[in-house]
């Protein structure tokens, strides 16, 4: 099996999309998130913005190898809202996203099948309206070395397009570097072969 070291996500919140069915309006939003703590404030702010709406259903997914997700039907019949929304996150193969669908009830009950279709469609429209980008899964390392090694280290960093995340120059030099997961072993061996450079 090939080791994949990329994933799809979005960088900025989507525009609002609207799906209508028999008088009910379903407003779809997609947000980039880095952790679960960001979910509640986003949902709360949508509740303030749409205080006359009836339901604020959502699904989110975080992570690539160690995936976490949650679905919320917010008072709709079980699995009629959160799960169809999550299904769209899976079908678009995106992660680190939160999809919220706000429902204004139009007076006619849609039944479970109608709800599943409406939440699924609104989520699909919102995701299709989002700018999906591919990012690499990166691993971070710490390089420790003396000043005389600086040129060697900088040359390797340049040759291999390694990103320096953080650097400290005191008695010793300390770089935090970021490398693509699939390049990890090859780049580690480059540094490990050098005298006076310690990698953690």
TrEMBL record:
<dbReference type="GO" id="GO:0005737">
    <property type="term" value="C:cytoplasm"/>
</dbReference>
<dbReference type="Pfam" id="PF01205">
    <property type="entry name" value="Impact_N"/>
</dbReference>
<dbReference type="InterPro" id="IPR020568">
    <property type="entry name" value="Ribosomal_Su5_D2-typ_SF"/>
</dbReference>
<comment type="similarity">
    <text>Belongs to the IMPACT family.</text>
</comment>
<protein>
    <submittedName>
        <fullName>YigZ family protein</fullName>
    </submittedName>
</protein>
<dbReference type="GO" id="GO:0006446">
    <property type="term" value="P:regulation of translational initiation"/>
</dbReference>
<dbReference type="InterPro" id="IPR036956">
    <property type="entry name" value="Impact_N_sf"/>
</dbReference>
<dbReference type="InterPro" id="IPR023582">
    <property type="entry name" value="Impact"/>
</dbReference>
<feature type="domain" description="Impact N-terminal">
    <location>
        <begin position="22"/>
        <end position="127"/>
    </location>
</feature>
<dbReference type="InterPro" id="IPR001498">
    <property type="entry name" value="Impact_N"/>
</dbReference>
